[in-house]
Design goal:
Blueprint: H1 23-33, E1 37-41, E2 48-49, E3 68-71, E4 74-83, E5 97-104, E6 110-115, E7 129-134, E8 157-162, H2 170-173
Antiparallel strand pairs: 1-2, 1-3, 4-5, 4-7, 5-6, 7-8
Length: 178
Amino acid sequence: MSTEPVQTMEFWSSLTYKEAVSPATARYARSMLAGTLLGQKCPTCAKVFVPPRDFCSIDGIRLDEGHDLALPDRGVITNFTIVTPVPYPGQKETEPFVRVSVLLDDVEALMGLQPVVDIPNEEVRVGMRVEAVWLPESERNAEEFGNRGWGSTTGAISGWRATGEPDLPVERYIDRVF
């Protein structure tokens, strides 16, 4: 049995993980940098996935770049939530903010958890027509694009703003949730 006291030392270390992105995610990131939303359409069920996934989760079939399609950057809000941040160290957003699901025009593709810009929280509503606000090309970056997101647009689109067009009927969109 040792009679020497236990000694400790501080040792600072860090690990940086770099995840290899899938081919579909790499194509999505390139398209976003070029100012185009990219999705994939399943040839069996016709569901459009955004971002592309290289597989259809409904039919269980492989998709590839041959199934890619450019998507419109306009749509309608199908649901939303107003988030009131809980304080924590290093927090960036301290005021309530909105995240919306946007059903893109013409393709029935739904993008969830999208930020809004130039719309007060209390004015966001189901049926509101919105369009993407693209960052200037020189400011776009692909750092936030990864395999784990639900269609992140961070780094290419700052958010979605009202188009000024009349709202679409709430009844058509209220059950379209992400």
